[in-house]
Amino acid sequence: MEHIKSLIRNIPDFPKPGIQFKDVTTLFQDRWGLKKCLDLFEEKYRYQPIDKVAGVDSRGFIVGAALADRLGCGFVTIRKKGKLPWETISESYDLEYGTDDLEVHVDSIQKGERILLIDDLLATGGTLSAAVRLIERLEGEIIGISCVIELAGLKGQEKLGDYPFHSLVSYDEM
C-alpha cells in the first residue's frame, strides 16, 4: 500500500485554505497505479455476489466502471445534480468545503440488487452518505463501500451506518 500512497499527490490549501487535497490523478496516470488499485479491489470482491457497482461522480467512475467490467456486473453512475438526462432522485449533502446534490436515475437500481459503492476518497462522509441514501431509496442492498483513500481523522465512516467499509490506503491527518 505504500507504493499506492507514494503515487498520490498532496495539494495543500485546495480548494480552500486548510484543506489538504489528495489528488488521485497522479495514481491513475502511473503505468501500474490504476491496475494495482483494480487488482486489489477485484481480489477483495471477486467472490461476492454483486449485481452492480455504483461509482460516485467523478473519480469514482474511473475505478467503479473498470471494476464492474472485471467483476462482470453492471455499473451505475451517481452524478452531481443536473448531469443525468432522464428521471432522477436527488440527495443533498454537506462536504468539507460547501454543499452539493447527488442524483441517480430512478431505474438504475432494482429492488434487492446487490450494490458495491465505490469512490476515490472518504473524508467527512457527506458524499458517500448521500450515495448510500440514494441506493437505499431505490431499495438496493449495499454489500460494501470502498474507496482508494480514507482520511480516517475526519471520521467519515461514522456517517455510513453499519455497511462494511474498505479502503486501500488511510491517512490519519486531516
From TrEMBL:
**Gene3D superfamilies this protein is in?**
3.40.50.2020
A Pfam family the protein falls into: Pribosyltran
Named in its record, the pathway it takes part in is: Purine metabolism; AMP biosynthesis via salvage pathway; AMP from adenine: step 1/1
Record domain Phosphoribosyltransferase: where: 31-150
What would be one Gene Ontology cellular-component term for the protein? cytoplasm
Q: Which reaction does it catalyse?
A: AMP + diphosphate = 5-phospho-alpha-D-ribose 1-diphosphate + adenine
What main location does UniProt list? Answer: cytoplasm
Query: Which InterPro entries does the record associate with it?
Result: Ade_phspho_trans, Adenine_PRTase, PRTase-like, PRTase_dom
The EC number(s) given in the record are 2.4.2.7
* Tree of life domain: Bacteria
An example GO biological process term is: adenine salvage
One GO MF annotation is: adenine phosphoribosyltransferase activity
Q: Which UniProt keywords apply?
A: Cytoplasm, Glycosyltransferase, Purine salvage, Transferase
Where does it localize? Answer: Cytoplasm
The protein's enzyme class? transferase
- Give the protein's function: Catalyzes a salvage reaction resulting in the formation of AMP, that is energically less costly than de novo synthesis.
**Which family is this protein grouped under?**
Belongs to the purine/pyrimidine phosphoribosyltransferase family.
Its subunit composition reads: Homodimer.
The entry's protein name is Adenine phosphoribosyltransferase
Name of the gene: apt
